[in-house]
Queue: 3 jobs
Job 1
Amino acid sequence: MTICIQKKLFNIEKIISNLRKNKPTIGAIVSFIGYVRDYNKDINTKKLKQMDLEYYPGMTEKALTKIEISAKSRWVLEDVYIIHRVGKLFPNEPIVAVIVASQHRKNAFEACEFIIDFLKTDAPFWKKEISDQDELWVENRIEDHQKKTSWNIKND
Amino acid sequence: MTICIQKKLFNIEKIISNLRKNKPTIGAIVSFIGYVRDYNKDINTKKLKQMDLEYYPGMTEKALTKIEISAKSRWVLEDVYIIHRVGKLFPNEPIVAVIVASQHRKNAFEACEFIIDFLKTDAPFWKKEISDQDELWVENRIEDHQKKTSWNIKND
Amino acid sequence: MKINILFFAGIREMFGFHEKSIEIEESKNSPEKLLKFLSEKDQGSWVKLLNSKDSVRVAINQEVSDWSDSLKDGDELAFFPPITGG
Amino acid sequence: MKINILFFAGIREMFGFHEKSIEIEESKNSPEKLLKFLSEKDQGSWVKLLNSKDSVRVAINQEVSDWSDSLKDGDELAFFPPITGG
């Protein structure tokens, strides 16, 4: 179980190969990667130049650990790796990766989706989009909260 | 939409970065990777030395294309990349990767799981496990057929 | 009519070859009829294949097919065990 | 009692600083009481924060908390907008 909050880019192939070095019995790996898109979500006339990612050192790690523990209590998993970038990010760069290893692929798929859903609502990160016209903090999305809530309905 | 059937190893980071070069609007990528485990599934006293992967040139590509088209008809996807290795494989090496890119992560998660479920039952590949004691063709798993069938119940 | 037969995995190993092209009369126009005919005529692995028919899959021109589907001149017919990829 | 207050994202920018340590009387023992007191006393950004209270989240000692949860000496109190990571 690893949590990385870092400024630098990451290489998913290297993360996975390190993960498997420690646990050669892993049969299935499901990963999610989220990217900085090169346009603003709502106003397509603006061109995104940069994204600033702020977090709450200490609380963010705790929140991610809590999400991982919650996933491990619901599914049998071999390993979980969460990596989230902070600081200045540029269009087309990856922001976040959630990598889940398990014996049975169904567990890995469900746990990976669960973790990214909860990360979006429970882990204190904030995005600011800097375009050629202005600088705006991203508003949170109602759909993200609906996705999170759906897990409670299904699993609790 | 890409289908690769190849002998050589693959690098998931490179595949994803090529995929994104062509479509910078991709916001989410979900990938599944399956591995050769270093023991036989049923008889743990045997040590796996090698796995031979046979396929049906022509039909395998057609079957995978059909699965991709079927996924694209169910979910809005940006791109799909399926890679499956054949020939001699060794323990801890990857066998297969399914990479799905979409705007919304839920579509990518569902489509990726759908594709690997159908690949396991509909794409003509056969595995032979060569252990320190014998050589055996892998039997197919009832669970795989159940997973495939569950998609029809949910989606048709 | 001419049928090109392909064998895969354990079935290929049982026959000892991957491919066999045969000339056969028009009346043997399904995988089932063809297999029954060959198991009577040539015996050997054809009999074994017929006996394990329930666990054998057939494809005609690279499409999964039924044992009773029709075969025509120039078709590619494949026999293989259940799929175990991924 | 001493409370260490942290501000994040848009709220940090509004205040112009990330952190503020304050000495406050024991009776202001919830985020809500503390914010009301400071908005009366110091005005400025505190008033704006109070007015946008419904879209502000609070955490006490790095746990998401309610506006009415209790604060004690030495606590870390954070104000931040809704989360938008991932």
Note: The helical segments of chain B are 12-22, 59-74, 105-122, 142-155.
Job 2
Amino acid sequence: MVRIVIQEAPFDFGAEADQFAASRSDVGAVVTFTGVVRNLDGEDLTAMEIEHYPSMTERALTRIAQEASDKWDLLDCLIIHRHGRLSAGERIMMVATAAAHRAAAFAAAEFLMDYLKSRAPFWKKEHASGAAKWVRAKDEDEEALRRWQPKPD
Amino acid sequence: MVRIVIQEAPFDFGAEADQFAASRSDVGAVVTFTGVVRNLDGEDLTAMEIEHYPSMTERALTRIAQEASDKWDLLDCLIIHRHGRLSAGERIMMVATAAAHRAAAFAAAEFLMDYLKSRAPFWKKEHASGAAKWVRAKDEDEEALRRWQPKPD
Amino acid sequence: MIDVLYFAWVRERIGIPKERIETDATTVAGLVEELRAREERYALAFADTTALRVALDQELSHFDAPIKGVREVAFFPPMTGG
Amino acid sequence: MIDVLYFAWVRERIGIPKERIETDATTVAGLVEELRAREERYALAFADTTALRVALDQELSHFDAPIKGVREVAFFPPMTGG
């Protein structure tokens, strides 16, 4: 089971978390991750602008959620990602994973986040202290993705 | 910031998740884990009974939450754990961690779960198909804890 | 006088959750020897201490630990929280 | 005819989000060469293709890939989702 939501409007994290996987009786472990627009140290962050590639985003997210579901036998999997202009403190996105045991739920959630960070077609622009700049991709996010690659025999 | 709740009554996961760390503007990443009483394969699990050691439990959980907070610079940390008799599908416990970045929030939540599994004074008894048996500690849970130990130089 | 607490199947085998006892033992292991000698239900509960954990005054400890000054000893199987 | 899309700072440098162009190029790299030759804003946007990513028909691809039969090419900086 995979659900993908891409929207400009805020989402209700509490309600989503509460309803997620609630109908499955074989779930033993649920992990959620939520990304929040944070105020940068000493800066006056007024907004985060998120651009995306509409015709690609849902397809890409559906495929990766399906891949995670297959790899870790997930019983449920949810990705919600906003775009548009968000203020500090607003929730940008969430993933949720449900599995029989905790190791699978944690690994799948981390995999989805590593993927979203550097392979899902979103671009963030920070508006702080009157200036706007595109967020640079971090080398450590590329590194993080590498740990999920199959090891050569 | 650390909050520990040990109670027999159900807790409102959606509301707890929604309110967690909501007042902090420096939070960029929130991870939650929820453990659920699951129906075992092919068995008719009617209930899970959880015994604990009241005078030890809160102290032990507070200390480990504080340790996780210090180690990963958590901005907020919550553990809720129920005891008593629970039915299949009920939420047993949750942890939530808030940090500036995702790696810290994930690592702290996994550490807390590994600790709770084999170091917090709770004991589970499964009532299924008319029989009751104490859940055996798993070797893999001991293994899981070992990864957090400082490596010898 | 020392309070001795039992949890989970240790409690079930011994048949009580808690008792206050007089002991001459100086270590947890010594206390376990005294308990084993009491009655068969104790001997059964403490047959294999590698299957047991011990806490002294609500802190996890080990069977070689001294119990001088300790007010509460708790015996239980490996924990299964989370 | 091929649709070419630009995102984030690539879009800002070129000044438009999308255009439909006629091309003789057979690979992404060939298309980039044609675009660079057009105007300075293209030359600037495509100055360093190691800083860019490309998708062909909504699938991540690479600059050596053929574009025969492709309907939509998108250029953008490394992604920063999550």
Note: Chain B has a mean pLDDT of 93.
Job 3
Amino acid sequence: MKKLINQVDDVVRDELEGIAAAHPHDVRVNYHPFYITRADAPVEGKVALVSGGGSGHEPMHGGFVGMGMLDAACPGEVFTSPTPDQMLEATKAVSGGAGVLHIVKNYTGDVLNFEMAADLASDEGIEVESVVVDDDVAVQDSLYTAGRRGVGATVLAEKICGAAAEEGRSLSEVADLCRRVNGQARSMGMALSSCTVPAAGQPTFDLGEDEMEIGIGIHGEPGRERMKAAGSAEVVELLTGPILDDGPIASGDNVLAFVNSMGGTPLIELYIVYRDLHNYLQERGVTITRNLIGPYITSLEMQGASITLLKLDDDLTRLWDAPVKTPGLRWGV
Amino acid sequence: MKKLINQVDDVVRDELEGIAAAHPHDVRVNYHPFYITRADAPVEGKVALVSGGGSGHEPMHGGFVGMGMLDAACPGEVFTSPTPDQMLEATKAVSGGAGVLHIVKNYTGDVLNFEMAADLASDEGIEVESVVVDDDVAVQDSLYTAGRRGVGATVLAEKICGAAAEEGRSLSEVADLCRRVNGQARSMGMALSSCTVPAAGQPTFDLGEDEMEIGIGIHGEPGRERMKAAGSAEVVELLTGPILDDGPIASGDNVLAFVNSMGGTPLIELYIVYRDLHNYLQERGVTITRNLIGPYITSLEMQGASITLLKLDDDLTRLWDAPVKTPGLRWGV
Amino acid sequence: MESVGLEQVLAWIREIAARVEEQRSYLTQLDSAIGDADHGINMNRGFKAVLERLEATPPADIAGAFRTVAMALIGKVGGASGPLYGTLFMEMGKAAGDRATLDGQGLAEVLRAGIDGVKARGKAAEGDKTMIDVLEPAHAALSAAVASGAGLEEALQKAEAAAKEGMEATIPLVARKGRASYLGERSAGHQDPGATSSHLMVAAASEVWGE
Amino acid sequence: MESVGLEQVLAWIREIAARVEEQRSYLTQLDSAIGDADHGINMNRGFKAVLERLEATPPADIAGAFRTVAMALIGKVGGASGPLYGTLFMEMGKAAGDRATLDGQGLAEVLRAGIDGVKARGKAAEGDKTMIDVLEPAHAALSAAVASGAGLEEALQKAEAAAKEGMEATIPLVARKGRASYLGERSAGHQDPGATSSHLMVAAASEVWGE
Ligand SMILES: Nc1ncnc2c1ncn2[C@@H]1O[C@H](COP(=O)(O)OP(=O)(O)O)[C@@H](O)[C@H]1O
Ligand SMILES: Nc1ncnc2c1ncn2[C@@H]1O[C@H](COP(=O)(O)OP(=O)(O)O)[C@@H](O)[C@H]1O
Ligand SMILES: [Mg+2]
Ligand SMILES: [Mg+2]
Ligand SMILES: [Mg+2]
Ligand SMILES: [Mg+2]
């Protein structure tokens, strides 16, 4: 394993020290327990947004803390959900009296830990609503399983709900908006290579020189299917077909197209993927009116990409365009 | 070779189509020959900035075209400098009557092709000044060699000079500023893995599981030295020591610290490197007052990082903070 | 022995910690196949914290020992196994109440309460390819043996055997809960990491209490 | 033959294009060791364009043929070799002027002009580990042979031999120009790719004109 890190056990703490040193005007880092808040938290009278999850997905979530997006993020160990005490302390630190929204990606660990934290926060008199994001069409949904994973839609939900909270919308309104974004977004990802969890020291899975994994998550899990590596246009079909088949997005719709790098795939390839996605959707009568292209929800150094489509309406578009100032996402200010 | 591309020979064109589709309001793409201009070019009365170089360094240079930075960028084939006709046409397309600055990275190919283009442009009555950026301390400078490579300082020079041009400074003022930035900036990079030029189909060099290359450039060239892979703190010493030894930056100075990913190294590692750089400089009395952290001048999917330090003064700081709106760098607007 | 007191409970917890440390890469490797390669790392981080806290503030009774384990796991493990094992010990602590010792009967009752807590939180049933596939049969074997008048040593041996069987029985299963469920059919053919760590706990009990 | 006309010049250019195509990966591989792994790709892209343009608009004379080659290389190759080889042929074209044929003497003059152009643009001297280390000795051998009254075939054979020697002599050199110079001492021990493509051109001439 070759990585630009120091001690394997210090990866998350060292990273947090880097974030604290790099963005002192935007965020504050708490070390006992680990959480990141915007520098001006708590914002009185504003619904506060708290998210979190395992580390290794940078810039998500810590890089999305700031004006117009998250009030706090709780980083767990690499690929391991954070613990209830982190979420509780972060929730208390950013609560501005208007309630706190927990944006939770649908993984058993994240869900259970946030559940415990929400119970504890309510015990302390803080009004908490939780929305679970589950947009990954690679996983078949079913009553009897853990359901779908939360992936790319999380980034979009955090941006859009963050803007709504800045506007002064109420907790239930922001929570409903979050559910709406989740309901109108679908994602699917693929990998050309695995990634190495620092503490594990070796790649989570091995891929042959001519193989790719389709339907991966963001934790180095193997995907639904292993197949022969294909070119960009074919990969776009393999990912976008299931997304469109799944429902909410149809011909005539305007969408936000989010082409995401898993961490090790460079921008030159993402733009080629975006071009092929643009053509694929155009042929099907779907119009891209907004886009996001880059590494925003990653899986350490994994090579690969994911596509997320969000059906847009005027309200969502306006909230997407609203100013945001975070280390990982910034415009309008 | 596994990449999200289509035909090897179409990589640059496909990428340009992706950029054109993604950023229609910010940039315009010309295909015969290849160049990218800001959508509102030419800007009357403003000094125009033109840069260019081989592709594979995204977002540089095409991603830096827009308000407050470049007026045009000329992408060559992967790692191959563009040709004089591209530079000439781009220069003509963005010339606003106040002269055109060519920002050239110091590689024989780039220098010779830009030289030819500048001659041709002058023949057509356009006033052109060229500044060659050569900030890479990994290469010993000498009268008898090609000199030092242009690397990270190029990104900083394009941002700062772009702001100066927007302010209405003259061609000679902007050119002098560019030379000043180059004179006050130093860089050095390292690699944990090689990269694969699409048309070559295999890694440019091989690195053992426990090896790293120190003093690499941005074209997958092997570096000055191969050594045993080390942790972040040690790598920071290996890169920053030579930078400080080289002169312009000393104890008591304020600097812009640019921690760059070579393409395959994820943000979680960059923040750890930034933390170690922050501590290393603090111990030596150098204060980081601005920073840039992420993949901005890359070498395809190479894993590794580079460090660039730019000595700041009030003028440079103000120009750095000025609004910029490009696909790859945006703030203040 | 026919019943265990605080000392034996602490010995059991220390034995679990030692085995987790020793099997951490094995557990992580199992998690690589159908999960995210961290189960051994998570459990080891958790039980290290358990030992520290038991050191720092020695519990007064069995219930206190279980509560300390629960709080350490909930606070340090994260992931799915943190809240689940945390709940297991939390509920065992509540069930232990003020009892100074637990005989076979008592152990079965306490374990029952713990398993019910895990199921309430995780919504998993037997056959979902989780720790439940080990905990349930272990409990069934333990209480059956106790009911038929077997001694603690024999009852624990039966429980360990049933746990082992349940653990191996997870191999062919298609996961319906946890990360492995994302793999669908591809999850079959691999032993569940959490079932493996649960078996480790039962095996530790049968060793330290089995005299 | 004792002198070459437009036909022979075109045959030579086509032979270069064929050899570049065939040796493209070899040239790229040499460039991987001390450069950026694109020399063969660059040269092949360039000479493909040369052939297309010669097809599209057949040149009227030798000077026109050289100019077409120059413009195609300058417009299509990029990198260092593009403007350098472009300049080589551009200057050769100027020197050829309106001559309908070139004898050994004429070839030497034209090549001299080309080499001077390359040196003026690239500032390289012999021993810098570049194409110059092949072009200069090739020119020296050619003019010496011609001066001593040798025929074109013999003169070209001598030039090729000198080019080969110069090419191999780049192996131990430490590069002072071009990308390879960034490697410092590490550039020693590798044959220079541009020297290799220059030898290819001389060898092509000695084959197609050497009857
Ligand atoms: N809903 C659930 N109910 C019971 N056990 C579960 C459930 N979900 C997961 N598990 C157990 O947790 C184990 C994984 O733990 P771990 O790897 O530490 O957490 P994560 O899956 O979050 O990385 C699985 O092997 C499984 O036995
Ligand atoms: N200043 C120079 N003068 C003469 N030849 C040079 C000079 N710089 C480089 N070369 C030649 O160019 C070759 C490299 O060409 P190529 O790989 O196509 O361009 P690049 O180095 O830009 O990738 C070198 O092997 C060398 O022979
Ligand atoms: Mg995990
Ligand atoms: Mg090149
Ligand atoms: Mg796991
Ligand atoms: Mg080259």
Note: The pocket of magnesium ion (ligand 6) is lined by residues D 31, 35-36, 38-39, 79, 179 (CB under 6 Å).
